[in-house]
Every structure is written in C-alpha cells, then in structure tokens.
Amino acid sequence: MAPPPAPQTMKERILETADKLFYLQGIRAIGVDTIAAEIGISKRTLYNHFPSKDALIAAYLERRFVQPRPSDKPPAEQILATFDSLQRRFAAKDFRGCPFVNAVAELGPADRAVKKIAIAFKESRRIWFRDRLNELGVTNAEALATQLVLLVDGSIAQDLVRDDPAMARAAKEAAAVLLRNAGVDVGDETAVKRGKRPARHP
C-alpha cells in the first residue's frame, strides 16, 4: 500500500489557492484578501510566505511552468499528440486559455518579471518542438518549430472565442501538413483526423 501523501505546507496551500483563483477569475480581479479569506488565514500569514502580490504572481506562473514528460514514442507522434492533449484540455470546463498569455494580457508588457517568465515558457515549448524535429532530421527545424507553436497558440485563441475543442483537431491537421511538407511520414490523412498513431519515421 502506498504511503499517504504528505500534508500540504501553508505555502503550498496559499500557492494552490492563488493558482486556482488567478487562473479562473483573473490576476487583477483577485486580491490577496480574497486568497487569504479562501484559505481562512490572515493577510499577515500570507505575507509571511509571499512578501507581495507580485511575488505570489511570479510563483503562480513558475508553478505552471511544467516541462513535457519524456517519451519513448516516435518524435512525429509526440508532436501531433500535443494537439490531442490540447483538445482534451479545451473540453474541460475549467479551461481559460494559456495562463502566461493571460498574465501578460492582464498586467501589460510593462510588467517585465511576468513577461520574462512568459517568454521563457513559450520559448521552452518552441525548443521542445525544434528538438523533436531535429530528431526527425528536418532541415529547417527552427522555422518549423515556430510555425507549430503558432498553431498551438492559434488553436487556444480560437477555442476561447468559439468554445469549440475541434479547433485543436484543425490545428493538428495543419501541423501534419507542415510535417509532410518537411518530408516527415505522419501516416495517411484519415488517421491524423481520427487521432490514430502516425506511422513510425524510419
């Protein structure tokens, strides 16, 4: 039998609550008073762990900065699976878009700390695509990686406007076209549309 999970520290409770409220309701809409009240603590206790709201915002974004898990699946399959994951996320009731884009949109480009974290996250995703493309031997991996992240962000924006998870599938089909044009074998078009595993790249 697995041991029970360790109890959360107060800092973890504060950060988890801030994460939920910031993401679902907006960073500007939620003050430290609301976060403290949600947990049932004083603002003084919150400030003992996070000296300012800015520090809490930075910690919230850093918490969201999660790298993709390593996979032994073929690189092309990993790339296309990104869009399958997006479609599942779009279908969730609590999906409110990219937290990094939301933060920059709310706080503005003048907030350099937030923008720095957001840029680092977006670049990490682009580099992840580039590395998979390099594994496939794609000639212009840098440019194609940029195009793929544009498809990701574009599908997120379209889903938020249309409330339609199928936007991720459309982006996946576009990604498959880009990969085919780069000489990557991703299987037939029907398999991609249905979400089947693409053929392994030689």
**CATH fold label of the largest domain:** Tetracycline Repressor, domain 2
Percent of residues in helical segments? Answer: 55-70%
Under CATH, the homologous superfamily of the largest domain reads: Tetracycline Repressor, domain 2
Q: Helical segment tally?
A: 10
- Tell me the CATH architecture of the largest domain: Orthogonal Bundle
What composes the largest sheet?
A: none
Rounded to the nearest angstrom, the radius of gyration is: 20 Å
Determine the N-to-C terminus distance. 43 Å
* Quaternary structure: single chain
Q: How many structurally independent domains?
A: 2
Beta-strand fraction estimate: under 5%
* Shape category: elongated
Give the low-pLDDT segments.
196-202
- Structural class of the secondary structure composition? mainly alpha
| Average pLDDT | 92
Order of helices and strands: HHHHHHHHHH
Q: What is the class of the largest domain in the CATH system?
A: Mainly Alpha
Number of strands: 0
Summarize it.
The chain has 202 residues and is mostly helical. It contains ten helices and no strands. It folds into two domains: 10-63, Arc Repressor Mutant, subunit A (Orthogonal Bundle); 67-194, Tetracycline Repressor, domain 2 (Orthogonal Bundle).
Structure description:
By secondary structure, this protein is mainly alpha-helical. The protein folds into two domains: 10-63, Arc Repressor Mutant, subunit A (Orthogonal Bundle), CATH 1.10.10; 67-194, Tetracycline Repressor, domain 2 (Orthogonal Bundle), CATH 1.10.357.10. It contains ten helices and no strands. It has helices at 10-25, 32-39, 43-49, 53-64, 75-90, 99-107, 112-135, 141-162, 166-181, 189-194. Helix 5 (75-90) packs across helix 7 (112-135) and helix 5 packs antiparallel against helix 9. The termini are far apart. Mean pLDDT is 92; it is low at 196-202.
